[in-house]
Specification:
CATH architecture: Beta Barrel
Distance between the termini: 74 Å
CATH topology: Lipocalin
Radius of gyration: 25 Å
CATH class: Mainly Beta
Structural class: alpha+beta
Strand order of the largest sheet: 14-13-12-11-15
Number of domains: 1
Helix content: 10-25%
Order of helices and strands: HEEEEEEEEEEEEEHEEEEEEEE
Number of helices: 2
Number of strands: 21
Length: 274
């Protein structure tokens, strides 16, 4: 009887040792996998920062407009696109498109007043601005109006896929097919040639043009994860919570970001160079 008890105790000890060893092996593989996934990405160190400060002034079109609502979303800059040394920024309160020189900080404006501006794209040397209403406005790079196109009403954003094709997607025009959300969309190339036809698109694998917002932290440093790259950040890139905005724009060697100072007296635009 004593011999049987001793054998049982020894078996239990061996079982515990095996379980412990398996646990250690599993944890080791998990940590190795996490390390390899981050180490496989190329880290881009931050080289320099440029900063542009534009005052909030609802009475001057050349400044930034902002309006707060107690029971609705606020109105403020909600999208931008960066090309070469210029930032093209939507100002829905002043109903215009702003072109900002990154180096001398001069601001030029579009002449047209556009209600409910929603998104902006610079494509094939054209500046394309969409709105929640029925018109899409097409400018040259000096913000001279080339034309406007009548499309369906609704919130419309610019998306692209992994092949680099650009679409204007109407998020207000959605149907469901086989449990997949399908949206009305337009090829951007067809818009430029004023050839309007609606296509049906699922955008599950698409993203808004230039926009990424996945931050990671490694060794107490913040990075923005973009495909196989990790861009070092000086601070977190915060979303604008008072209204929906695309306030991050990623290029291969540059990240641009805008937000407000604490008192919302100025719009702060930062350009991180890599």
């Amino acid at each position: 009887m004593i011999q049987v008890v001793i054998q049982i105790q020894q078996t239990q000890q061996i079982s515990k040792m095996i379980t412990k060893d398996l646990f250690i092996i599993i944890i080791t593989f998990f940590l190795m996998d996490c390390h390899s996934s981050s180490s496989s990405k190329k880290i881009l160190p931050l080289k320099s920062i440029q900063r542009i400060v534009i005052p909030i002034d609802n009475h001057k079109d050349s400044f930034i407009g902002y309006k707060h609502f107690e029971d609705d979303m606020d109105i403020g800059p909600n999208s931008f696109f960066v090309k070469d040394k210029y930032i093209f920024l939507l100002d829905p309160f002043h109903k215009n498109v702003k072109k900002i020189d990154i180096f001398n900080k001069r601001i030029s404006l579009s002449n047209e007043k556009i209600d409910w501006l929603s998104d902006i794209l610079v494509y094939k040397n054209k500046v394309i601005a969409s709105s929640d209403l029925s018109n899409v406005y097409i400018y040259d790079l000096q913000l001279k109006l080339d034309g406007k196109i009548n499309v369906s009403n609704g919130t419309k954003y610019f998306y692209n896929n992994t092949k680099g094709h650009h679409y204007l997607v109407n998020l207000s025009k959605m149907s469901i097919k086989d449990d997949v959300k399908i949206y009305d969309a337009y090829y951007v190339d067809s818009l430029l040639y004023n050839k309007l036809y609606i296509i049906k698109k699922s955008i599950d694998t698409y993203k808004r043009v230039g926009y990424y917002n996945k931050e990671v932290k490694i060794n107490q440093k913040k990075y923005l994860a973009v495909n196989n790259h990790l861009y070092e950040l000086p601070h977190s890139l915060l979303e604008i919570k008072a209204y929906e905005a695309k306030n991050i724009f990623v290029e291969p060697k540059r990240i641009s970001y805008f937000n407000f100072d604490r008192g919302k007296k100025n719009l702060i635009i930062e350009i991180f160079n890599y």
